[in-house]
Amino acid sequence: MRVPLVAGNWKMNTNVSEATDLVRAMLAELDGITGVEKVLCPPFVSLTAIKKLVQGTSIELGAQNIYFEHKGAYTGEISPRMLVGLCNFVIIGHSERRQYFTETDETINSKVKAALSSGLRPILCVGESLEDHETGQTETVIAGQVQAALAEVTSISQLVIAYEPIWAIGTGMAATGEQANVSISIIRGTVASLWDTDTAEAIRILYGGSVTRDNIAEFIAKRDIDGALVGGASLKGDQFVSIVSQTAAIKST
Fold it and tell me: Staple 41 to which of 62, 101, 241, 252, CB 3.0 to 4.6 Å?
């Protein structure tokens, strides 16, 4: 059985005070939910403060990005080694990084390898654009992104993949549960072609893209969807707790 995982990507929102207030407001309820892995991904500046709040709880932390070098003259960048001891997970290849910061498949591959070599657990994001979706290119695009991101990666036992169709991120236009499950099945099939069926069946694949407490059940009920990478709704404590709670309840049945 794949343990479901729900991660909250806060993106460039909250200062340290706002971040700690948000965690305090949902800490007890979130910690009490079992049967699901819970990950909060705040901005870098809040990782230390939030780590103190969640220490000793079942809540884990993730970063939103890394650079692929471990040290050097790269002003403003954060290396994997800087995050060791602060968090366990790191989001890599989010569509906003690809779109606004021109990250390529090669860059993302370098980041995946750097994260794994440092003991961090990548949440690798893949997904197609609206044009790709409308012209029937979804399978080609997402399979190609997975293949490129995992090139020369020897083990993916610590990897999580998140399917985030670009046309559904922050638009309020989520994919249907069936659409998401089909795409995630393609991702799982691609992993099987790169490794084997057992590896593909073991890896957790999340859905992300306008996930809310009102639609999470539609996704989690699908066999191949193992959780969610949540954006805007993760900034509202009651909504995020509800998403996690529903995920745990549905996947336990």
Answer: 62
